[in-house]
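can u do me a favor
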């Protein structure tokens, strides 16, 4: 049995008949940060982090900074020059994903975070890269200085009409999930329309074929809490959703349904400004 996977992931792999493939892919998961991974991290201006807050809600948050604000300080340690998201315990399991739209590369690093003089550190437990599938290519136009509306978070318990439009137009979002063995942060991508809004408190998306690991769906088998992060790439607005998700299996494939408990919208929450996307050629068509 591959110890890279928890019982939830193993159960989904068995259900989908991909255990052998998952075992092969799982050999790429290590606890060490290789030089090529360290170089990739140090070149990134953003990092998505998933964690459970003190109230138990799982959230996916965006951290940004000049290249080098995330850097490996040892073979198993990463230093981040930013504060942990508000409400995160001082010592907390976290999942992170560094995604570079310019090169369509991404890297995931999960472990234990602790505050530091620079911001916080992560003791790595799982480090691995993913293929560029469903990643949209974007160019970085630059970074804007913080504006007065930046940081003015708008909280709610359901999507507003403008937020519904943001979700329905999304070609990318991030999802954080948790289980007894830790937290994971992952990426979901597709053509606009691949995320559906059924009601202001219910959204869904098709789970497209991936690397057969089923880390996200496996965590949802163990613990239904999840956090989503949507980003308006051109304006920097961020939309965080916390709630619970489950997977439905049907003749047309897997569908994840997410029920919203809390929303948090931050206008100009990211200083980064990106170009319009060049969609991945493998994105499935949407209705």
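np, heres the sequence
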């Amino acid at each position: 049995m591959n110890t890279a996977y928890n019982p939830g992931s193993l159960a989904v792999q068995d259900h989908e008949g991909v255990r052998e493939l998952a075992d092969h892919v799982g050999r790429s998961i290590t606890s060490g940060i290789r030089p090529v991974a360290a170089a990739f991290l140090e070149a990134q201006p953003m990092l998505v982090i998933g964690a459970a807050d003190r109230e138990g809600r799982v959230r996916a948050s965006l951290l940004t900074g000049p290249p080098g604000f995330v850097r490996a300080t040892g073979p198993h340690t990463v230093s981040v020059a930013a504060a942990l998201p508000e409400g995160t315990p001082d010592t907390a399991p976290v999942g992170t994903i560094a995604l570079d739209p310019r090169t369509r590369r991404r890297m995931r690093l999960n472990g234990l975070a602790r505050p530091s003089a620079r911001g916080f550190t992560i003791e790595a437990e799982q480090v691995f890269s993913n293929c560029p599938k469903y990643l949209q290519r974007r160019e970085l136009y630059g970074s804007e200085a913080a504006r007065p509306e930046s940081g003015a978070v708008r909280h709610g318990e359901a999507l507003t009409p403008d937020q519904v439009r943001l979700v329905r137009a999304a070609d990318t979002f991030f999802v954080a999930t948790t289980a007894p063995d830790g937290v994971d942060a992952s990426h979901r991508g597709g053509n606009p329309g691949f995320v559906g809004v059924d009601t202001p408190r219910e959204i869904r998306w098709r789970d497209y074929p991936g690397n057969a690991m089923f880390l996200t769906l496996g965590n949802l088998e163990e613990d239904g809490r999840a956090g989503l992060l949507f980003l308006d790439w051109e304006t920097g607005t961020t939309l965080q959703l916390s709630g619970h998700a489950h997977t439905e299996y049907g003749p047309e494939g897997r569908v994840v349904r997410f029920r919203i408990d809390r929303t948090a919208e931050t206008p100009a929450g990211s200083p980064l400004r990106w170009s319009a996307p060049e969609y991945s050629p493998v994105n499935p068509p949407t209705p």
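The domain at 7-274 is CATH 2.30.110.10 (Pnp Oxidase; Chain A). hope that helps!!
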